[in-house]
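Ticket 4471: requesting a sanity check on a complex prediction with zinc ion. Repro inputs:
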Amino acid sequence: MKCQVCRGPAVIDVRRHNANFCQEHFLRLCRDQTAKTIKQFSMLSDGDRVLVAVSGGKDSLAVWDILTELGYDADGFYLGLGIGEYSDTSLDHARRFAESRGLALHTEDLLRDHGFDVPNGSRAAKRTPCSACGLSKRHRFDEAARRGGFDAVVTGHNLDDEAAVLMGNVLHWQTDYLSRQLPILPERHGFPRKVKPLVRLTERDTAAYCLLRGIDYLVDECPMAVGNKHLSYKAALNDIEYDSPGAKHAFYFRFLDQAAHRFAPSDAIDESEDVAPVSPCSNCGAPCSNEVCAFCSLTMRATEAVPIEMGATRRRKVSR
Ligand code: FES
Ligand code: ZN
Ligand code: ZN
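Returned structure tokens:
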């Protein structure tokens, strides 16, 4: 197996490109594909300060590493979700990566800072754990970006993630979600710009990237994601990809090229809100469409219903 660029010994095959690469040229491919995505969708400009949403997993550490290599000024933000050992370990990985590269990692913890964690909060609010988790992450990442004066929030969503979400949205014809399933959401209504520079790379690519760069990431998947429909969509897409290399890429990128604009709303907004925001949340000041934003509403329900468990130092007072 030879590298298609230098003809030296290859370390990985990339079937959708019908090519093999040595370490140097695979790492370059990952950076080039990321830079191409950033440019194609006008995600970032020179001089932008970006905040990377870091989980300690392969995707978020890979995107943080690649952006730094590409010369961006990128801090990390980690939100502790209170999911037992999984959360403790994920924070260790994020911290070790930041320290090894001298990068700034900002941290926040749902239980310590907001009085609830994902398992208890989702039960109290009668949401699935992933829904309570996603809502909390979006709100806290946005708030951290606003507070820190960052130009954009970067997430490590990859091609497998986006293709699986697209499959779920198409299967149920969730046209409102389809309208927002873009690799960039511009800044508007007080929400920061959000970008996904890894949408050309697969999970296998980001895992290989981390391995070859010596990045020690958290391998375990979130224990609360068991039964999540996206995992079955990913498995189905992997089967299709096995027989038709490049199918995932075509599914997602042709959607962007040929179909996404058909679902474009007149007023796209953040996923955590149902309609266009009109006023600041009366509790936290975040832009929202109701008197209280979805995160503060979740916090109220969770902290009213859930007794504080070990590790909580205070219950955050949330006024109605
Ligand atoms: Fe959010 Fe698992 S990481 S529920
Ligand atoms: Zn090579
Ligand atoms: Zn709020």
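Notes from triage: Residues 38-263 form a domain with the Rossmann fold fold (CATH 3.40.50.620). Leaving this open until the requester confirms.
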